[in-house]
């Protein structure tokens, strides 16, 4: 009745008789229908309805029927079957226009796409597995042995239940690739889930369906894409999980990695138990100290150390060169990268006058692994590809390269022209500090990038110039942690207790200043006690320590040297820096004997049981062994 005029509304309201009102309404309705029919017949009228081309929408009934067929083909447990088919029955009786219809449809599609009964057959042959590990990885004999033992148990028990392997070590040493080798040796599918930077528990266990845009967790989503319920599952970077406002992801992993609970793993979105006990879980981490204790308790830690120089050269020859040539589509017949060129990328440089000069690995590849070394090999391959492209000119399909001798020889001198500037402008702290003044000692530390040499510098104020004479105050600089500060107090306490026996000054009348370089980097750890004690003794005696030696180990107040970790990384760090004597705790002899024989023959390692043994080894009047 929108076409009525205002006067007609007033007439309608002024009439009190109901029958007259009905007659007026009937009359106006007839008049409105006639007016509308007249407007439809007018040519060019904008209100003439146009033909609408509707897109054909698939029949929702067909989708439901197809979904029902997929669900009927899956063998569920009784508990899961009752839940799934009750939801399917509810979907059938639901109007497709309801908001919950699509939510329920997506949930049932996820259920139908999960590998409830789909498995791969294990094909574990120890000989085959050993060959795969040997072909894909150099050295790491202890790691390979542990992996083979784990596979042998899986073959005998026909099950993978048990401890979860966790490979820890610096980046680029092959943690992920060894997990792929395990999957290949077992004949299983490989699935990787990166956990770095996760702060929300829902990333692991999913969101509840009551939330808008709810999604399943990464575990269920990965199984959906994997289409197998027994893959080798790599949980990458488990040490980089953080606690946020939405819960702890590390705590969410506890149910997943517990062999007694993961047969009924509950994802919040799926909300029905799913058996993940057939999955072989493998974790990787760079720093196990950042793992939560409960999560660390469920993992079997396998430490993987960095590579020595000889190991890196061997890896480059057997793996990296072949991989980069294939990546750059260069035939191995077109290039010849000799051993001296590989050594040039790793250890040796050549000066402008052609005379060989020694340099450090860190000038091109400052790492414990081989990632930067592989990038350098890639740079050489790009140089070769450019020369080949220039020779081909406008005929890239030619079979013969004109005016070019093949294979292209890449020599040591070519390496420095290709790589040009050194990637790592590392300060040669060992050479800068020589000759050592009294109170300076070379210590050893382990970081997530491998081992490194850390100078420990001490000095005390001259009594005549000190404003705090007789206080014995200790000043620390270099961003030291609480453990390091306590090690300084222990070293000073030991010196005060044994000064009379050793005939030394107690330094009680002098303030002591302890500094570790690179002040912007946090430094902490328990293995600096012996180095601090040596620096204090050198300071009290006024006698410098050996400039070719480094020391590591913690001490007690009674003077005993306590064991430390990261022995191989620390020995390799001393080797890279040109130091040839390393003083280690005697209790770490077993870890030292696991180091390659070539490195042990090259290095002069002293095993000390007391602080006196350490001081004797660091102050021995012997010829300098380092290559200056």
Automatic annotation (TrEMBL):
<keyword id="KW-0720">Serine protease</keyword>
<dbReference type="GO" id="GO:0030163">
    <property type="term" value="P:protein catabolic process"/>
</dbReference>
<dbReference type="InterPro" id="IPR054594">
    <property type="entry name" value="Lon_lid"/>
</dbReference>
<dbReference type="InterPro" id="IPR003593">
    <property type="entry name" value="AAA+_ATPase"/>
</dbReference>
<dbReference type="InterPro" id="IPR027065">
    <property type="entry name" value="Lon_Prtase"/>
</dbReference>
<dbReference type="GO" id="GO:0005524">
    <property type="term" value="F:ATP binding"/>
</dbReference>
<dbReference type="GO" id="GO:0004252">
    <property type="term" value="F:serine-type endopeptidase activity"/>
</dbReference>
<comment type="similarity">
    <text>Belongs to the peptidase S16 family.</text>
</comment>
<keyword id="KW-0547">Nucleotide-binding</keyword>
<protein>
    <recommendedName>
        <fullName>endopeptidase La</fullName>
        <ecNumber>3.4.21.53</ecNumber>
    </recommendedName>
</protein>
<dbReference type="Pfam" id="PF05362">
    <property type="entry name" value="Lon_C"/>
</dbReference>
<dbReference type="Pfam" id="PF22667">
    <property type="entry name" value="Lon_lid"/>
</dbReference>
<keyword id="KW-0175">Coiled coil</keyword>
<dbReference type="InterPro" id="IPR014721">
    <property type="entry name" value="Ribsml_uS5_D2-typ_fold_subgr"/>
</dbReference>
<feature type="active site">
    <location>
        <position position="570"/>
    </location>
</feature>
<keyword id="KW-0378">Hydrolase</keyword>
<feature type="active site">
    <location>
        <position position="527"/>
    </location>
</feature>
<feature type="domain" description="Lon proteolytic">
    <location>
        <begin position="435"/>
        <end position="621"/>
    </location>
</feature>
<feature type="coiled-coil region">
    <location>
        <begin position="50"/>
        <end position="77"/>
    </location>
</feature>
<dbReference type="InterPro" id="IPR008269">
    <property type="entry name" value="Lon_proteolytic"/>
</dbReference>
<dbReference type="GO" id="GO:0006508">
    <property type="term" value="P:proteolysis"/>
</dbReference>
<dbReference type="GO" id="GO:0004176">
    <property type="term" value="F:ATP-dependent peptidase activity"/>
</dbReference>
<dbReference type="InterPro" id="IPR020568">
    <property type="entry name" value="Ribosomal_Su5_D2-typ_SF"/>
</dbReference>
<dbReference type="Pfam" id="PF00004">
    <property type="entry name" value="AAA"/>
</dbReference>
<dbReference type="InterPro" id="IPR003959">
    <property type="entry name" value="ATPase_AAA_core"/>
</dbReference>
<keyword id="KW-0067">ATP-binding</keyword>
<dbReference type="InterPro" id="IPR004815">
    <property type="entry name" value="Lon_bac/euk-typ"/>
</dbReference>
<keyword id="KW-0645">Protease</keyword>
<dbReference type="InterPro" id="IPR027417">
    <property type="entry name" value="P-loop_NTPase"/>
</dbReference>
<dbReference type="GO" id="GO:0016887">
    <property type="term" value="F:ATP hydrolysis activity"/>
</dbReference>
